[in-house]
Structure formats: structure tokens, C-alpha cells
Amino acid sequence: VIIRERESAPPRVDMTVDLAGLELKHPILNASGTFDAIAALRTFGQSVREQFPFSAFVSKTITPDPRGGNPTPRLWETPAGMINSIGLPNKGLAGFLGHDLPELATLPAPLVVSVAGFSHDQFARLVEPVAARPEVAALELNVSCPNVKSGCVMGSEVGEITALMGVLRPLTTKPLIVKLTPNVAEPELIAQAAETAGADAISLVNTLRGLALDPETGKPWLGAERGGLSGPAIRAVALEMTHKVCSLVRLPVIGMGGIGSGQDALDFMAAGAKCVAVGTENFRDPAAGVRIREELRQLLARRSHYLRQVNAGAEIG
Amino acid sequence: MSAGGPQTAEIEIGLAAPEQGPRVLAPFGRRCCSVTVNEAVGPYRLVGAEDPDGPVPLPGQFFMLAAAQDWGDGATQRPYLARAFSVCRLRGGRRDFLIDDIGPGTSRLARLEPGEDDLWLVGPLGIGFSAPAALHEGGRALLVGGGIGIAPLVIWKEALQKAGVPNVTLLGFRSKSQCAAASLVVDGVELATDDGSTGHHGLVTELLERELERSGDQVVYSCGPPRMLEAVRRLCAQFSAPVELAMEEAMACGFGACYGCVIRTRDGYRRICVDGPVVRGYDLDEGWIE
After folding, report:
1. What pLDDT is stored for residue B134 in this prediction?
2. Using omega within 30 degrees of 0 as the cis cutoff, is the peptide bond preceding B124 cis?
3. If we measure between CA atoms, which residue out of A200, A202, A159, A211 comes closest to residue A181?
């Protein structure tokens, strides 16, 4: 990253980032499952394309077979955040390739496809055909969804992530991003195992497991009982985990968890993240990514040493 | 690729419902609008915000609302997410919303100070009511509302009157005090209350049944609590009357991102925010309310 110093406003900051070989215009991505570009085009029209907030677009997670998702209710607002229990509804691989991929390929940003399987074989059934499509720039391996049965297992144990990467790494040369769960004692060990096994980047965190109770009955509110907590409520936890992972692995890291401002984004970059992802804040403002990017630009113009250090792979703080 | 595979998947998942009904596109992002009206309407508040440069919403479309101050900004931990409201009335560039103070979000909105406070708006969102002629040739429009759910029927009635479409409006409330909201509806309405303090003593759906028996040539539009909507759906199915229901569900985003506001349809789960909030009665799963 090169900062071109200039006296007058607006600051001209070169925010380009190299993420595992992807040349990105700036460090702001979306968290998977928090921005449906196709639904946004239906709602907002072509202005979504013209003001696209993200330097790469991460799809909602797909699974080999179609899924309807979890029973309702699926949402609960918490202090400074929310719990969701969506359960990966998606059209399945064939539906995604046939219907969604052609439209997502028209977005003005490289496409990262998030995939999740419930076995090594299911992951392999997704990675090979998805990676083979020229429209796909990279894949994110969702081994961390708290809302599907056994979805977390492969991202929760060192041996599991090593074995999974052993199966998937030979299938493609495209970047494989491993999305980590915060629901383990030491996420840095999972990150190190992923690095050793050939991952190209790490993204963290997925949601923290959470529970909401019906005030009338005292029973779980959400249809699937448990859910995942997101929003500013988890930012400090996510920042600590990002900091620790960045200090122990050399892979580029996409940090996320409650980012709602340029300062929040800068914090994750100061903790060592090369890129950051906006998640729940997209729900509050569809164009939040645009605002956060511009706030970050202003901040970077004054604090160029952060990015230089991040790019040099140095630990900060 | 065979046409069968992915299409079957779509129907099972209900993620690709065909576009049904009219839609006005929203500007991308949220915009800050001045609050200029906040007045009592019975136990409810009618809050108006100036959005002169925003697109004119269609009856049945909705907005996501959040107060610009004291809303998830650090000082206040809740409300955090914006709240969805059907547009109730248009007055020039002003958009009016009907608020029932029942939780932290609606409570904050109900306390907005005209001339001082600002409101974040995202919208118009979702699809609106279809013109009666699009559902059924000829006949009249029957509007059936319950409680706070009368909001989208206020603007729809104004549009139908303007277009010269014959219409009848039936509104149900718990008690007399809520009936003050009926004054928002232009021209005549017939009322029902649970306690009989005003109008028909009983359910608004009893009035609907009477109207359906009287004539078979009508299109029904309804908004209200889920049990009322289900009763309306059943009656309309029984009398083979086309019906559009404006649905409500808690939603985090309002533009299809969170998948939180799904409802069970014959084709599987659908997102109310992008495939609704106006849904045709025959599209709902028989057990959608369970």
C-alpha cells in the first residue's frame, strides 16, 4: 500500500490491497450472509452497482443440496447487536451455479464464494466445481456456522481442519480462505493449522453462540433454540482474536466483528488484519460499507504507518 | 443444464419467488430526514418525516426507520436495528408512519420531537398492493384492517378513491380508544370492536364474511395481526375472492440480506421484505401461522 501524501483535501490515499493474489481496490469486504447483492439489485436497482461498497463480494454460504433454513423466529435484538439463527438457506450448488453466479459475476468486484459442507466429501463436491468457474476469484470455507448441526466441528479442532485442507487443497489453485469460529478457546491454533495445511487467508470471526429466552415462557425464543451473536456487542472479542491470530500466522487476515465505522476498521487493521469485513452494520444501512470506506480513507491519510506495518507483516502494539 | 433441477430447488426453497405486484426502487443507503409531525391518534402516534427528494412509495411498500439520535449509538444499546413500517400517508414530500409504542424501538420513535429530531429512512422497500384489475376484473375493493395494521390501508384507500375504484373499508380494534385511528381513513369506514364499545361487537372478519356473502365480485386487501390475516385468508379462499395480505415480521435489514423475516408459503420460505410484504393469500402455506 502506498500513501501519496498531499497537502490539500480530499486525501488521495491508495487503499489497494493484495489479498492472497487478489488485487483489491480497498480493504472493505462484506461478511458472508450480510449483503444479498441480488436482492439489493431488486430493491435499489443499478445504484448498487454504481456505488458498490465492497472491494470483493463474498456470497452467502452455499451447500451441496438446497436448504430452506431454520424454523422461525430467526432474529433477536440484543444490546448493541443481534442473535440470528438463519441456518444457511440457499439454492444448493446447482441452483447457485445456474441462477445466482451469472448475476453475481456482473458485480464490479471479484467474487468470493462461501461454501459449507457437512463432511469432507460435501466440501469437495462444492470446491471443485465452484473453483472451476472463471467468474469465481476465491473461495471461503465456512467451517464456523453455529446455526447448522455439526457445522462447527471442522473449524473447531486442529486435526479436523488439517484433514479437511488435505482433501480440498489439491482441488484448486485459487485462494482458499478459512473462516474461523470464535467459539473455541484458541482460534489461533486453528489458524496455524490452516496455514500449515495450505490455506491462503484467514477470515474471522463468525458469530458467537448466543441464546435468547422468550420473556413470557422462559423457553428459547429462536426457532432453532440457539443462534449466533453479531454486531458491536462482539467487537472487542473479535478484535482480540484477530490480534492474536495475526501475531501467530503470516497469512493475510480478514478481520470482522461489529465493525460500524472507519475507526473500527482501522482498529482491526492495527491489530494486523489486511482486510476487514462489514457484517451486521449492513443491515442498519445498506450503504454502510461506502461510509466506512470513506471514513477509513480519511483516517489512513493521517495514520499511514498502520498500513505500512500491516503490509510489512509487522506486529503492532 | 436441465430446466427441472434448479427450478425444483427454487420452489422448495422459495428463494426466487416471481416478482408479484408493483415496486418503486429505493435509493441505495439510508437518508436523514427531518421529523415535522408527531401527533396522537388515539393510543398511537402518527410520525411524519420530510423526504422531498425520495421516490414516492406505492401503497403497501415500507421503510426501515431509525432515530438519528439515541439509537444504537453507544449511549443507547437498544434499539440497535432499524424498524420496519408501512407507509401510512403521503402529504407532499412528507411520509407518515403509524407507531404503536410497544418496545424500545417504537418507544423511541414515538418520542421523536418535530422540528428537532431526525429520522434515518431506507426505502421504499418491498412490493406494494396490486391494482384490483390486476387480480380480478371489475368489482370492488374490500379493505380489512386490524389495529395498527390499518396503516397501509390508509394510503391504499386514498389511492383507490382517487382512481375511482369502488371500495368498502372494514376496521377492527380492541376497544373504542383505538378507533380514533379510523379518522385517518378518508371517506366512510365500518368499525368493529372486541368489546363492542364502538360499532359491531365482535371481529372485523365477521363483517368481512357478511360482505363476501353479499357479493361475489370483489378483491380483498388486508393488514393486521396474524390471526386476523389467517381468518381473512380462509374466508377469501372459501368465497374464492382474490386477497392480498400485507404481512409483518421482525426484520433486521429490510432488503433481503438477513433472511430473518421469512414466512411459510406454498413454495417454501420467502422473505417478506423482498418477496412481500404484500403477499397473495393463495401463496401462503396453510399452516403459515403455526
Report:
1. 86
2. yes
3. A202
With beta carbons less than 8 A apart as the criterion, state whether A152 and A114 touch: no
Q: By C-alpha distance, which of A1, A56, A3 is closest to A28?
A: A56
Query: What pLDDT was estimated at residue A10?
Result: 57
Q: Which residue has the cell 487478489?
A: A22
**Cα separation, B54 vs B60, whole angstroms:** 16
Say which residue the cell 369502488 belongs to: B166
Chain A, nearest residue to B14 by Cα? A68
Whether the bond between A27 and the residue before it is cis, its omega within 30 degrees of 0, is no
Residue closest to A277 by CA, chosen among A235, A316, A307: A235
| Half-sphere exposure (Cβ direction) of B139: Cα atoms closer than 13 Å | 20
Give residue A220's Cα distance to chain centre. 27
Q: What pLDDT band is residue B78 in, cutting at 50, 70 and 90?
A: confident
Nearest-angstrom CA–CA distance, A25 and A22: 10
- A269 closest CA partner among A6, A4, A13: A13
HSE-CB at A138 with a 13 A cutoff on CA atoms is 26
Q: Please tell me the pTM assigned to this model.
A: 0.91
Cell of B129: 398492493
ipTM of the complex: 0.89
Note whether A51 contacts B120, CB cutoff 8 Å.
no
Contacts of A231 in chain B (CB under 8 A): 80
From chain B, the residues in CB contact with A284 under 8 A are 30, 66, 72, 80-82, 253
- Measure Cα distances from A118 to A70, A189, A254, B9 in Å: 16, 21, 24, 19
Q: Report H helices in chain A.
A: 37-44, 47-50, 92-95, 101-104, 120-131, 153-156, 158-168, 187-196, 235-248, 262-270, 281-284, 288-302, 304-311
pLDDT band of residue A311 (cuts 50, 70, 90) is low
Spatial separation of the C-alpha atoms in residues A288 and A122, rounded to whole Å: 34
Task: Indicate the SS3 state at residue B14.
Answer: coil
C-alpha cell of residue A251: 497469512
Known catalytic residues of A are 145
Percent of chain A with pLDDT over 90: 86
Can you tell me the distance from the alpha carbon of B145 to that of B154, in angstroms, rounded to the nearest whole number? 9
Residue B30 binned pLDDT confidence (cut-offs 50, 70, 90):
very high
Most distant CA pair in chain B, distance: 63
